[in-house]
Amino acid sequence: MKVFGLVKLFALLVMIDLGTLVAPMAQPASPSTSEADDVITYYYRDPRPERLVGVLDAFGKRHREWVAYPPVAGFLAVVFETQPGWIEKLVPARPDARLATTIAAALQLAGQPVSNDLQARLAQAGTDPTLVGQFAGLPGRLTDLRIAMPTHLDILWGASFASGDGRYALMVADFFARTANRSEPVALDITRIVAGMVRRDYSDLAKLKDKYEPALLRDMVYAATAAWALTSNARQHAFIDRVVSRYVSQHSGTLAAKVLTAMKGS
Questions:
Q1: How far apart are CA 20 and CA 18, in angstroms?
Q2: How far apart are CA 150 and CA 225, in angstroms?
Q3: For a FRET experiment, which of 53, 133, 191, 247 has its CA 20 to 30 Å from that of 85?
Q4: Higher pLDDT, 208 or 34
Q5: In 3D, which of 90, 92, 64, 89 has the Cα closest to residue 76?
Q6: DSSP letter string over the chain?
Q7: Cα distances (Å, whole numbers) of residue 8 to 11, 37, 182, 188
Q8: CA angle, residues 37, 263, 73, in degrees to nearest 5
Q9: Maximum distance among all alpha carbons in the chain?
Q10: How many CB atoms lie within 10 A of CB 75?
Q11: What is the mean pLDDT of the segment spanning 187-196?
């Protein structure tokens, strides 16, 4: 699964007692048909920043939904941190509001200062209100990110494919395990939620609203998203597969390890 098969998000409506929770979720989908997407997906295999010249322009023209942009923030955070001399060259001369908001978030996560010229470019583009909300409270370092919402998962996947560094996938695994290890019923129902995601059939998920408190059900949906992403990407990327296999080995016997083992084998 290519990165924009995973991080091209969809809005999943989860009906719960307190109303409708709109959870932006990472989802495997059909292979990318965009050269710009492909460059980002497998950038870690050939991490030369000159390959990214013009990619953001092409990406902005192809993707109009805000949900496609959080992974780019994580991707660019890695590139900006490791290649600060390329920041000015990679940012489009006239980014739109969504891309400008994403670039600003990436600069923050990379801990990079913003030149006057770049600040003027971003200011002229304006900001996207939805992305401003999604990026609120980001830390000054990518590794300090504490996952609290699906957008944060997507940021970490973007960082993964920019770097080929397994620590970001490990952060996702730890996040998943915090909920999966709560109890055996929770772990089993997370597995059922994932199965529904694969089938795009959310009838089982709707039934769970009477079984769990809304906050726990939300955490289970987020955990299912993390588990699905981990095992799906492990099939496409060897470094993710190593992370998942090592996690299962080091946490043998835990409910989280059992869920991941079952999903990898399915």
A1: 7
A2: 8
A3: 133
A4: 208
A5: 90
A6: --HHHHSS-EEEEEEETTEEEEEEE----SPP--HHHHHHHTGGGS--GGGGTTHHHHHHHH--SGGGSHHHHHHHHHHHHH-GGGHHHHS-SS--HHHHHHHHHHHHHHT----HHHHHHHHHH---HHHHHHTTT--SSGGG----SHHHHHHHHHHHHHH--THHHHHHHHHHHHHHTT-HHHHHHHHHHHHHHHHT--HHHHHGGGTS-HHHHHHHHHHHHHHHHHHHHHHH-HHHHHHHHHHHHHTTTSHHHHHHHHHHH-
A7: 10, 10, 29, 27
A8: 30
A9: 55
A10: 29
A11: 92
108 within 8 A of 76, measured Cβ to Cβ: no
- Token pair in block for residue 179: 């909920």
Amino acid at 266: S
What are the tokens at 248?
Answer: 């299962």
Q: How many residues does the chain have?
A: 266
Exposure letters 195-232 (e unless 16+ CB within 10 A, then b):
ebbeeeebeebeebbeebeeeebbbbbbbbbbbbbbbb
Q: What is the pLDDT of residues 206-239, one digit of tens each?
A: 889 889 999 999 999 999 999 999 999 999 999 9
Looking up tokens 């993707």 gives: 63
Contact 142, 78 (CB under 8 A): yes
Q: Whole-model pTM?
A: 0.88
Nearest to 226 by CA among 162, 139, 160, 165: 160
